[in-house]
Structure formats: structure tokens, C-alpha cells
Amino acid sequence: MIEKYRNKAKFVAGLWLLSLPLLAVVVAFAKHGQRRSIVWAILCSTLMLLSACALYLRSKGRSTLWLLLLLLLPFSVFVPIVYWRLEDRSISGNEIKANADFAKGLEATKIGDFATAIQEWQALANRGYVDAQTGLAVIYANGHGVPQDYKEAVRLYRLAANQGNAFAQTSLGAMYENGHGVIEDYKEAARFFSLAANQGHAEAHKNLGVMYASGRGISMDANEAARQFSLAVAQGNSDAQAYLGAMYERGLGVAQDHGEAARLYRQAADKGNALAQDSLGRLYESGEGVVQDYKEAAALFRLAADQGDDNALTNLARMHFIGQGVDQSNEEALRLNRLALGNSFALYHLGLQYSMGRGVSDI
User: Fold this and answer.
1) What is the pLDDT of residues 220-230, one digit of tens each?
2) Would residue 115 be called left, alpha or beta, if left means φ above 0 and alpha means ψ between -120 and 50 degrees?
3) Is Transmembrane one of the keywords UniProt gives this record (predicted)?
4) Do the beta carbons of residue 295 and residue 325 sit within 8 Å?
5) How many CB atoms are closer than 10 A to CB 81?
6) N or C: which end of the chain has fewer CB within 10 A?
7) Which secondary structure element, helix H or strand E, spans residue 20, and what is its range?
8) CB contact at 8 A, 128 and 117
């Protein structure tokens, strides 16, 4: 009687031991999902089945097969371990080569050789290499070395976005926001910006803040807009600094504070942000949050105007028209207003100059 239960216990214990390598194979398959995993799974399962049969025969008194069990059990455990080692080594080698190929393409872009970059990145992108997908998407979106193709850029951004890449999610959101390669869809844009913002992507925080501030694709919420801008500002995003400065200047989503607005504008202006340069110029012109200084205002307007900012062009034109902070010059005012014809204030000032005959007689 005791011998009978002892044999059953051995049988159950043996099955538990045999389940361990099977579990290892299942984990390997889930990890890599490759054809070789299936082959190894079948092999190891076969070995374990033979081992189970041997164990069963041993329980029936066939002691000669016990040796077979002892030989097959370690082998069935050893096979997946060896497989993992070889598989990891293979994956590591592939990653090293992929990184090298990507780096080669990246170096090519730095010298304007986009044909080489495309050649290096296309195969990587097809294999799911995220950086190659986003790199190619940027090339197609901007038409670097190839005809501009927004649809192909969207396709590539989507592949990378589906893998959780924050840059691709932000870029895809921008494509939806602007209707490039897809039908304009602010809600979808906000969705992708949110996905990237949840990963802490600065540009996504800034873009999502703009959508909350404008109410496009999402409910208008000045408090949330200011919060999103603040998260981007914490990462040094100059556009967000300019936008959050505007929130403080107007008291939207935050307590009105011209001093804080000027501080944020200055941070962005020092980075060459045209919007911030123009906005800070206005504060110097009005003396809000800073000591009034017309020369500094004009200098900031000029920095932004040199970047083609319409508001700065009209503001600088106005200062030349009245001779405030700069030499009075009707001709310069006219020239600047003509450069900013897309601006309603520029049109107004042009009309005013023509009606007064100031700066137009010699032109």
C-alpha cells in the first residue's frame, strides 16, 4: 500500500518538474514570438512527453526506463536555456547593427545626403525600428531629398506612434491639427498630444496647452492650458514660455502678473523666440512689469521683425512713424508696414500714411 502511494507521489512530482521547462519555452515564445521559438517549443514538448511516459512506466515497475527519464529531463531543461542564450546574443547583434546603420543614416542627413539616409533607414523602418520610422517621416514631411509626401510621413509616424514613441505621437497630432496627409481633425490631434504629454514630452505639453487655451478639439480650459504650458516650461520649451507669459500678462488661468510675464518672455526672447521678443517689446513700451524703455522696446521689435513676425514689423513701423525709441522715419515705417501686409494694423497704418502723405511722396 505504501509503495503504491510512493509511486504516485513520484509520478506527480515528476510531472511538476517536467512542467518547468515547458513554462520556460512558453515565456521564450511570448518574449520573442519568432519561428525558432515554435520549433524549440515542439522539441521540448516532445522530450517532456517522452519523459512523462518513462516516468509512468517506472511507476508500473519498468525500472529500466528510469534511466531514460534521468537523461531526458536535464536535456529538456538545458535546451531552452541554450536557446535563450543564443537568441539573446542574436538580438543583441541585430540591435548593434541596427544602431550602426541608423547612425550612418543620421550622419548622412547632417551633410544633406538624404538619399543615403533613406537607403539606410528604409530597411530598419520595415523591421519596426522606431527611430528609423520617425527619421524617414521627418524627411518625407519636409521633402528633404524627396518630393514632399505628407501621407507617407503620416504612415511612418503612425507606425512609430503605435509603438508608444512620444515624438511620433506629437508629430502625428500636428499632422491632424494642420490637415497634412490626413483630414484635419482637432480631436484626434488632441488625443495624440495627450498620449505624448502623458510621457512628459515638452512639445506635446505645449501643443495640448494651445488646444486647451483655444478650445480646439477639446473643452476650453484656461487653468489646464496654463498647467500644460508650465510642464513644458519646466523643460525649457521657448514657445511654452512665451504662451505662459501671455497667460500671466492677461490673467488667464493664473493670477495676472506682468512681472512674471516679463520674466517668461525674457527667457524665450533670449532663445530667439519672435513671439516673446515682440511681447516683451510691448511691455517695455508700456512700462508694465518692467521699467519703461522705448529703445529696448524698439530693439526687441527689430529682433522679432528680422524673423518676419508681422506684429513686430507693425510695432517697429509705428515707433519709426512717431520717432519713439528710434529715429523718426516715415519711409522706414512705410517699408516695414509693407512687409507686414498680412497684418490688419499694417494695412491701417499704410492707409493712414497715404492719407497723410507721409513717406509716400518720394516712393
Assistant:
1) 999 999 999 99
2) alpha
3) yes
4) yes
5) 12
6) N
7) helix 2-32
8) no
Q: Where along the chain do its domains lie?
A: 1-91
Neighbour-count burial of 18, counting CB atoms closer than 10 A to its CB (0-12 exposed, 13-18 middle, 19+ buried): buried
Cβ neighbours of residue 359 closer than 8 Å, sequence gap 6 or more: 329, 330, 331, 333, 334, 353
Angstrom distance (rounded) from CA 222 to CA 213: 5
How far separated are the first and last CA of the chain, in Å rounded? 119
Q: Whose CA is closest to 132, among 160, 167, 110?
A: 160
pTM to 2 decimal places: 0.71
Question: CA 321 to CA 315: how far, in whole Å?
Answer: 10
CA distance 52 to 18: 8
Predicted pLDDT at 82: 57
Angle at which helices 66-110 and 35-59 cross, to 10°:
170
Instruction: With beta carbons less than 8 A apart as the criterion, state whether 275 and 288 touch.
Output: no
Contacts of 311 (CB under 8 A, 6+ apart): 278, 304, 340, 343, 345
Q: Is the dihedral of CA 109, 112, 113, 118 positive or negative?
A: positive
